[in-house]
């Protein structure tokens, strides 16, 4: 019987081994994508839920008739493990899927929306998201978690980012930044609407913008908190029931006081070795301009 949550990185890694099954991943990757299908595939904690809400609102006229957003926009890699057939008909058109896959792994033939976020903020957000759910509150300091975040190899932020940055300029791929979404949410909604073929309806786009606002999503927090995922996968990970997490936290850089000079230096070095070396983008702050964002 499980008596506690993981208290070390090693214990957390072992718990996460049970998160997704090979069969579930196989079924997700076997999906036959159609040209109108929309795959929302940022790295973890980089705006996935936010973009799910925007896309689902645009395709349904702003419907909030779902228990939790992953029920309406299924997670491709986890759908089978949550009792959902990823190929099943969806309640609206176009079909939309959540994913965290890179370009190499994701089913081909659809349309792809990827949001990038400063990896330091993504790491802090993931630490906050896991704390009290995937590991005991207070058990794993930010510095240890940052080292784990840096060591993820082919599952790292940098590996994922490089795979999608190579898609810049492709008609089937929309690349955005989390910071750009914050700076100009109405403009983001317009870009997404045009990309997925939503009607040019100013009233609809205004409604979706309002429903994608932080205040609105926080007021409807249980529809964005992954409670269906936890109910389906906690036991497989050996996690006790009763954990809590939120997808709609503050977006103001909260927690950056925990970023020591050593953490910042390690992240900067990884950037230079990967993104700067391949694309010539000197630092994350230059990414929005490289992508053509004007906000």
UniProtKB/TrEMBL annotation:
- Segment forming the signal sequence: none
Sequence intervals crossing the membrane: none
Q: Which UniProt keywords apply?
A: Transferase
InterPro entries per the UniProt record, alphabetical: P-loop_NTPase, Sulfotransferase_dom
- Identify the SUPFAM superfamilies for this entry: P-loop containing nucleoside triphosphate hydrolases (SSF52540)
Give the superkingdom in one word.
Bacteria
Q: Which Pfam families match?
A: Sulfotransfer_1 (PF00685)
Describe the location of the Sulfotransferase domain by residue ranges: 35-220
What is stated as this protein's family in its record? Belongs to the sulfotransferase 1 family.
**Name of the protein this chain belongs to:** Sulfotransferase domain-containing protein
Where does this protein come from, organism-wise? Paralimibaculum aggregatum
**Species lineage:** Bacteria, Pseudomonadati, Pseudomonadota, Alphaproteobacteria, Rhodobacterales
């Amino acid at each position: 019987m499980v008596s506690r949550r993981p208290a070390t990185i090693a214990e957390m890694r072992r718990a996460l081994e049970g998160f997704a099954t090979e069969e579930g991943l196989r079924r997700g990757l076997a999906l036959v994508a159609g040209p109108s299908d929309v795959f929302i595939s940022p790295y973890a904690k980089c705006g996935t839920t936010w973009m799910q809400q925007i896309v689902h609102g645009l395709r349904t006229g702003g419907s909030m008739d779902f228990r939790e957003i992953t029920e309406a926009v299924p997670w491709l890699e986890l759908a089978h493990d949550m009792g959902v057939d990823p190929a099943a008909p969806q309640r609206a058109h176009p079909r939309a899927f959540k994913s965290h896959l890179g370009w190499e792994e994701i089913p081909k033939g659809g349309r792809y929306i990827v949001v990038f976020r400063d990896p330091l903020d993504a790491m802090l957000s993931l630490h906050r998201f896991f704390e009290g759910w995937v590991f005991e509150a207070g058990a794993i300091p930010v510095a240890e978690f940052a080292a784990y975040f840096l060591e993820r190899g082919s599952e790292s932020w940098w590996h994922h980012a490089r795979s999608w940055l190579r898609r810049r300029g492709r008609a089937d791929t929309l690349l955005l930044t989390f910071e750009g979404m914050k700076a100009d949410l109405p403009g983001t909604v317009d870009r997404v609407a045009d990309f997925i073929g939503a009607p040019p309806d100013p009233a609809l786009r205004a409604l979706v913008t309002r429903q994608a606002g932080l205040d609105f999503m926080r007021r409807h927090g249980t529809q964005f908190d992954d409670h269906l995922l936890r109910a389906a996968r906690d036991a497989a990970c050996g996690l006790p029931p009763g954990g809590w997490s939120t997808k709609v936290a503050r977006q103001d850089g909260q927690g950056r006081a925990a970023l020591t000079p050593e953490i910042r230096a390690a992240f900067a070095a990884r950037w230079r070795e990967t993104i700067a070396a391949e694309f010539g983008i000197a630092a994350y702050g230059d990414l929005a301009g490289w992508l053509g964002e004007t906000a």
